[in-house]
Write a structure and sequence with these properties.
This protein has 18 helices and no strands. α16 packs across α17. The longest helix is centred in the N-terminal third of the chain and has 45 residues. With about 375 residues, it is mainly α.
């Protein structure tokens, strides 16, 4: 018994010593942390560190930041990748957004990075020799979320992964492009006219909003990408409402928000009148499944009463209200994509989106594809109601 009590006292003494030691260690660590925080605060308060972008980082700081950035991206990037054969429609859509939202900082084939952008810290890289260093998923994460402390913004709409993948598809094509092939993809029909010396000197001309839209939607012809709607001959009222919804963020689209956010009301009305007055081009030639077209026609004409789906032609026929788009001759890829957005819970905040979203959710994926095939098979009417 005495031996047991002696052993217990010894254990207690050891425990007290350990607790005392750990207490001293923890106290020392707390003191060091407090001193470190006080030193950092004093360092910042005195302004010792030069934050000027013109001075650059210390080499070791630059290496550390890059090392941390690369590992952060790789730790968070998705595993998805583009298919082996990239859809040309996806490339063309991505090219239009790159030209509008990315080329100023990163340059483009034949056009160097702006001196202003090149003076950023870190300077934005020339992407033609950088994109191969990243996987598709890593590029996707960077384009979607941007990079802190690098001036790289996130994508305007974080919910539109389909548009972000279009940019990645274009970036994969970018290293193989020269000035001519880049302009063919990014500008399409648009051929900017050279300004006269007086116009350059006095700034008498503004950026052509119609030309900016025509990069993706076409001017004399329809859109070069089948993921983009044909605007020619659409009702002006519908076009105005759509532009306002994109500009306000009621409709989710990083591509269209970039294009519409700076438009004034007169510009919106002018653009709508311009496209409403244009003759509707012939529908693009697409392979069609006659059975799918027939099934889609039945839904478009009669609806699906058991599912609460009304006739599509009631709102989207050529004699319907000018509040709604005409769907005859629209690309099937585009129509499928729009129905998929509504079915996934996107684009349901605008007035027309609140109508379409619940209807689209009642359609199966196959039914949505059939309806798209039907409308794509139709020849567009010569004019729509203005």
């Amino acid at each position: 018994m005495a031996m047991t009590m002696s052993l217990l006292r010894r254990v207690r003494q050891v425990a007290q010593w350990l607790l005392g030691s750990w207490g001293r260690v923890l106290g020392a660590l707390a003191a060091l942390m407090a001193a470190g925080l006080a030193g950092a605060g004093l360092f910042a308060w005195l302004g010792v560190y030069n934050v000027a972008a013109s001075t650059g980082h210390f080499r070791i700081v630059d290496h550390f930041l890059r090392f941390g950035m690369e590992n952060s991206v790789r730790a968070r990037a998705p595993s998805e990748s583009l298919p082996a054969e990239i859809d040309e429609n996806l490339v063309r859509l991505g090219a239009g957004h790159f030209h509008a939202g990315c080329a100023y900082c990163h340059g483009s084939p034949g056009t160097p990075i702006s001196p202003v952008a090149a003076s950023m810290l870190p300077p934005p890289p020339v992407l033609t020799d950088r994109v191969d260093r990243w996987s598709d998923g890593e590029l996707f994460w960077i384009v979607k979320h941007g990079l802190k402390y690098a001036g790289m913004p996130g994508f305007p709409s974080l919910r539109r992964d389909d548009e972000i993948w279009a940019v990645i598809a274009f970036l994969r094509r970018l290293p193989a492009l020269d000035r001519r092939s880049y302009r063919a993809l990014a500008l399409g029909e648009v051929e900017p006219e050279p300004q006269r010396g007086a116009e350059i000197a006095t700034g008498q001309t503004e950026a052509d909003a119609i030309g900016a839209c025509a990069r993706c939607h076409g001017a004399r012809q329809g859109p070069p990408s089948r993921l983009v709607p044909t605007l020619h001959g659409q009702p002006a009222v519908m076009l105005e409402n759509a532009l306002r919804a994109y500009a306000s963020g009621e409709r989710d689209s990083g591509v269209m928000q970039t294009a519409a956010s700076d438009l004034t009301e007169p510009a919106i009305r002018g653009l709508a009148r311009y496209y409403a007055s244009q003759p509707r081009p012939a529908a693009p030639v697409e392979p069609r499944d006659p059975d799918a077209v027939a099934r889609g026609e039945a839904i478009a004409r009669d609806g699906l009463s058991a599912l609460g789906v009304p006739s599509c032609l009631g709102c989207h026929g050529d004699e319907a209200s000018p509040l709604y788009p005409r769907l005859a001759g629209q690309p099937a890829h585009y129509l499928e994509g729009q129905l998929a957005l509504w079915r996934s819970g996107l684009n349901d905040r605008s007035a027309t989106g609140q109508i379409m979203a619940p209807i689209a959710r009642r359609l199966s994926e196959v039914q949505a594809r059939d309806v798209a095939a039907y409308f794509a098979s139709l020849a567009p009417a010569a004019e729509a109601r203005r």
